[in-house]
Design a protein that fits this description.
- The protein has helices spanning 4-28, 31-51, 56-65, 99-103, 132-137, 153-162, 183-188, 196-211, 214-219, 253-256, 285-297, 319-327, 346-354, 371-377, 411-416, 421-426, 430-447, 463-483; strands at 88-90, 167-168, 176-178, 224-231, 259-264, 271-273, 302-308, 333-337, 356-361, 381-384, 407-408.
- The chain has 18 helices and eleven strands.
- α1 runs antiparallel to α2 (31-51).
- Among the domains are: 88-114 and 149-277 and 462-491, no CATH class; 285-446, Glycogen Phosphorylase B (Rossmann fold, 3-Layer(aba) Sandwich), CATH 3.40.50.2000.
- The strands form two sheets. It has a six-stranded parallel sheet with strand order 2-1-3-4-5-6.
- With 504 residues, it is α/β, with parallel strands linked by helices.
- The structure holds 2-acetamido-2-deoxy-beta-D-glucopyranose (7 copies).
- Residues 61, 64-65, 68, 289 line the site of one 2-acetamido-2-deoxy-beta-D-glucopyranose.
- GO terms for molecular function: glycosyltransferase activity.
- This is Exostosin GT47 domain-containing protein.
- It comes from Capsella rubella.
- Residues 83-423 form the Exostosin GT47 domain.
- Pfam families: Exostosin_GT47.
Amino acid sequence: MMKQVPRIWVVILVTFVFCLFVLFQINKIDLIETNLQITHQVNNFFISIAASSHNQTLSFTRNANESDGIRAKQPEEEDTDACAGRYIYMHNLPSIFNDDIIKDCRPLIKWFDMCPFMVNSGLGPQVSDSDNTTARVLTVETGSWYSTNQFLLAVIFRERMKHYECLTNDSSLASAVYVPFYAGFDVSRHLWGYNMTVRDELGIKLARWLREKPEWGKMHGRDHFFVTGRIAWDFRRVRDEDSDWGNKLMRLPEFANMTMLAIETTAWANEFAVPYPTYFHPKSLNEIWRWQRKVKSLKREYLFSFVGGPRPNLDGSIRGEIIKQCLASQGNCKFLNCNVNDCDNPVKIMEVFENSVFCLQPSGDSYTRRSIFDSILAGCIPVFFSPGSGYNQYIWYFPKDYTKYSVYIPEKEMRNGTFSLNKFLGGIDMESISRMRNEVAKIIPKIIYTKPGLVGPEKIEDAFEIAVDRTLERVAMVKRMMEEGKDLQSEYSPIKDLKKLEVM
Ligand SMILES: *[C@@H]1O[C@H](CO)[C@@H](O)[C@H](O)[C@H]1NC(C)=O
Ligand SMILES: *[C@@H]1O[C@H](CO)[C@@H](O)[C@H](O)[C@H]1NC(C)=O
Ligand SMILES: *[C@@H]1O[C@H](CO)[C@@H](O)[C@H](O)[C@H]1NC(C)=O
Ligand SMILES: *[C@@H]1O[C@H](CO)[C@@H](O)[C@H](O)[C@H]1NC(C)=O
Ligand SMILES: *[C@@H]1O[C@H](CO)[C@@H](O)[C@H](O)[C@H]1NC(C)=O
Ligand SMILES: *[C@@H]1O[C@H](CO)[C@@H](O)[C@H](O)[C@H]1NC(C)=O
Ligand SMILES: CC(=O)N[C@H]1CO[C@H](CO)[C@@H](O)[C@@H]1O
């Protein structure tokens, strides 16, 4: 008799969760799809119950938590290699290709001292609980907030890779090869005042180094990838003239065979956009849940806000119009002018975003902005003016249906001079706002870079894990194409149209 009681509870729990799934699914998608999805979800649910039949509580909690956008890794089957198909080999590059570049941190970016941001393996200086505003705006007591600089992504990513659970020293086991080259800092230290020869030199040297390694022969570099904290345009100089921007790294035959992960991509198919780093680098699921709850319940004083600078010299920039409307909004909009303010201060930035319902994300010098990710982190609904700023970039990270989590206002509407942001955003009903904000909160775990070293159930499907998973999938696909003798052109040429509003 006594033994029957827990079983009954399990059945009740299962039924309850099943009902939740049914309700949730019917709300969301049309009926034909619903049946498929429910079967799928229910199957998943039973599989995870079965996989850990001695501990139902654990798998129930995990499934319940998935609704917050956090996908903890499912328990692996016991007998098989949990890393099968996921092994990565990291090249042990000579230090001239990474460590030496950042050792001399002063000239990395001509206009800016990068040295203070190098600490904590690239996360930057930790934000301490120094005053009441900091304590109110951030959750500092967990020690997970840092003044992280956007250009440090390559350093942060490499540190994470050192702790990747399926890293191998045996390259014959590896499904992909990671090249820890600080390409962004190499180009940026030479962007101003150096000729092409100097800008191209190190990339050419690395291409030669890679080609001579035994790992190259396996797929001629098609299984190699690298990560950069700069926009992809910097590596695709159009003509070989000193006056043209950037280096020609991605035009080198070796790099043309590789896959590049960058904070912003161009039209090329072998580039994938990964999130800019934010200031938040938590080390547990609980911290993330706490943060999601916080941003969902905040009282927001401003309808919309813009953090950034005007671009008076940039032809066709809509920033001037945006700032004009913001200032004229009679307190509905907050403008933090980065030309006069310290916009590297995490507290100042997050305070504005936490206090705003919508965050305007017009393009600046390039399509994308770090601000997109800071605003999502703060639970502020992003407003995009160009598909190239988000929808056509972070396809691994954002929901396909952009209306679920963002607002789109075509740039040309803003140029026209008759469109009122205040009127338009003010007209969006509370229910839509709340629905979008919940969706934004679900994106948070996917776009942050958590602290290195989380394994097992504490591991979070964050920006790094997603980037690695998707890259492994791409390499597997390319490998299949090669085996079938297919033409790889479509995977390595300019095919994207960043200006078109259709999700790729
Ligand atoms: C179930 O999991 C919890 C949390 O991981 C653990 O504390 C507990 O001992 C487990 N129970 C059994 C029966 O394995
Ligand atoms: C900060 O908070 C403490 C305790 O809540 C309070 O005593 C103190 O006056 C506050 N300081 C400022 C500058 O507001
Ligand atoms: C690879 O080899 C290096 C040096 O021999 C060692 O420090 C490192 O732990 C090894 N890594 C793995 C994943 O086996
Ligand atoms: C490029 O600049 C380097 C160092 O400034 C100089 O030594 C070299 O001669 C220049 N090359 C050309 C082709 O101008
Ligand atoms: C790039 O890959 C192709 C095979 O897809 C190969 O024929 C070519 O030699 C590779 N390029 C280099 C520089 O290895
Ligand atoms: C602005 O756009 C609206 C609708 O798209 C159009 O009716 C109006 O004529 C335009 N005004 C100007 C000045 O172009
Ligand atoms: C939203 C939610 O249900 N979060 C829960 C996820 O699971 C942990 C325990 O592992 C709870 O503490 C959270 O409240």
